[in-house]
Design goal:
Layout: E1 2-12, E2 17-27, E3 30-41, H1 43-56, E4 64-70, H2 73-80, H3 83-89, H4 103-116, E5 119-122, H5 130-146
Parallel strand pairs: 1-4, 4-5
Antiparallel strand pairs: 1-2, 2-3
Helix pairs in contact: 1-4
């Protein structure tokens, strides 16, 4: 079974404000970096978009194990602690009956998860993780590039 690792991060200058997302994909010795910009957004949307775009960049293959690394507790917990399942069962309402934010992105992520079955792994942000740090650099750089 082959393994593909996807590191992701989102950034926002203000919250809301201009935002950037980035992903680094690692497959064997190959490395691919992608990033993008959104004029007005939130940090959580950028974290989700980084994961979505990272997963979209993968061509589904039999026997491909996908690991997605993120420093976003919001993203990783929603998947690993089954918040997504609960939200769907509750008509996209949180435990305190509020409407789930970013439903459009969660729906897109659910679709990608069904195709790729990634494992979500939480990493410590702004720490010693080389690829998480690289994603942060890319996300921040694209914000700066587009808000000069």
């Amino acid at each position: 079974m082959s393994k593909l690792k996807v590191y992701t991060d989102g950034a926002c200058s203000g919250n809301p404000g201009p935002g950037g997302w980035a992903a680094v994909l690692l497959y064997g010795t190959a490395q691919k970096e992608i990033s993008g910009f959104v004029q007005s957004t939130t940090n959580n949307r950028m974290e989700l978009l980084a994961a979505i775009e990272g997963l979209k960049a993968i061509k589904p293959q039999p026997d491909l194990k996908v690991e997605l690394y993120s420093d976003s507790a919001y993203l990783v917990n929603a998947v690993n602690q089954k918040w997504l399942t609960g939200w769907q069962e509750n008509g996209w309402r949180t435990a305190d009956k509020k409407e789930v934010k970013n439903k459009d992105l969660w729906l897109e992520l659910i679709e990608l998860n069904s195709k790729l079955s990634p494992t979500y792994i939480k990493v410590k942000g702004h720490s010693d993780n080389k690829y998480n740090n690289r994603c942060d650099e890319l996300a921040v750089a694209i914000i700066k590039k587009n808000t000069k």
